[in-house]
Amino acid sequence: MLKRYLQTGSGFFLVFLIYFLALLPILVIRKDLEDNQLVVAAVIWGVLAGLSFIPAAAMVIRRVWFFRGSGEPAVQDFLQSLLLEINSMDAPVQVKRQRKRFIVTWRLSDQAWCERLEKTRMKRVYELWLVFDNSIKTVTMIDKYRSVNWDLSPISVKTGWLALSRPFFKVTHGNEWGVENYEDAIPEDFRFTPDEIKSPVMNTILKNGGNVRFSLF
What we know:
By secondary structure, this protein is α+β, with helices and mostly antiparallel strands. Helix content is 42%, strand content 23%. Helix 1 runs antiparallel to helix 2.
């Protein structure tokens, strides 16, 4: 993973270098500009840099954080069925199908697990959004966080309607990891961190021949 972190840093360095090169002409001729012209030029540069940063960051993440699956790709329906089997396991994780994507998150509706989750005092609930592209055998992973209110827990847990994107890179990569690990785990094993959702799901996809790509959106 160290190599991917270095590549990510290099990618962002290149983005900021491009921004600096775009600003350089303004810095060179700033003495020849009126104050209002300099302000307008700086504002235009700032607006363009701000608007382009998120797409640029997304491009870096999509290019660097791509994992190629091993072996012959499994049929998409079979791969999705493997993930849906999580719902039948005694684990704090659940999988929900929402239109064309799957959402993997904590099992807040289960009272026993909800009580354990509440003890972590987490302020935002992690969600892993999965978008399947069968034409290129790739699953795009998007990290989302949603606010949570524990006031009525465990009877009812309220989550915010807005899910914010924030990339999570600290995953464990290896054949020994997969959703089947949930079957042997005991409640005390869980720290309720995003990697306990993302790593097993990612490795299950990879072991069954699917590619995985991280993305901001």
